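hey m, so remember when u said the tokens were messed up on ur end? i reran from scratch. heres the input so u can diff it against urs
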Amino acid sequence: MVLVIGTRGSKLALWQANWVRDRLAKAGAEVEIKIIKTTGDKLADLPLTQSGTKGLFIKEIEEALAEGIVDLAVHSLKDLPTDQPPGLKIAAVPPREDARDVLISREGAGLIALPAGSRIGTSSLRRQSQLRALHPNLEVVPMRGNLDTRLRKLDAGDYEALVVAAAGIHRLGFRDRVTEYFAVDAMCPAVGQGALAVEIRQGDERVEHAVQILDHRTTHQAILAERAALRELGGGCQVPIAVHAWCENHLLHLLGVVASIDGRRIVRASGSGSIEEPGRLGAELARRLVEQGAREILESVARG
């Protein structure tokens, strides 16, 4: 059986696709990788918040999947909108990498030790808002580019520090660059951060059977809870919404944060319950956030 994986061509995307390929190959499948350029790759210099395009890094890959050009797609789960195209489904969610964010500082200073006015680069409104809440005197600067590019800009002096996902740092072998790991209650991660999604066509039993070896149940249930919360709040990956779920003592625990871009207003909610009810738990968490004013914050962000 030959399986064709669709993926972006960045180093991190290829690492992820090769990770999936190697495990499928060990199970006896013949696997090929097809690189597909996405809108997000073509708009490399445009800040994500100004793109106006949903699913920047997945649209063309999902089109290739729907058309049968590829058999499965491997995505960073945080890039997947909660409303998937008809006919496609997430068939497997492998074990999650570290979901936390990390600070990489040029001079080795932790966040609180950074001098007022220090330029700190990040690509997401979620990180920007929580950073400003933690350290109001920083200059938070939007940035794009793959991990190598961001690290080069840091080393060249364009920024004093970066905030990026630990997962990408770990996968590409840059652990030694990490200055500080943020606790999830200090910098709540994005929905799906650190996790991969293996997406297939609905009804393709051949591929679904093949990829089931990749699925990690507790990670998958946590992801379902996070995405349910995001869906209830009506947000995508470029809004200041953070939700993180994890399994402990046979229970699913959730933490959610919605913050204004300036970091001056921030609401938090948490909850826990049966791992068998991720959708209900996620929706309940979202409602708790709304009760504290999350909707007003998000509407304010949308108005700019």
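this time it looks ok to me. Confidence is low (pLDDT under 50) at residues 48-53. if urs says something different then somethings off w ur setup not the seq
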